[in-house]
Amino acid sequence: MDVVRILESASLLVPEGVATDNDIAASDVWDHLAHDEWEVALSLLQELGDGWTAPAGFWDQLERAAGMLGFERSREWCRWRGGEARVGVIRAELALRPAGETFRRTPVPGAGVLRPMWDIGHRTEGGTPDLYIAHVWVEFAPELAPGTTAPVRLLPLTPERWRHLAPGDRITLYETAVAGGTGTILEVQPPSGHGEDVRRP
Question: What is the pTM assigned to this prediction?
Answer without folding.
Answer: 0.87
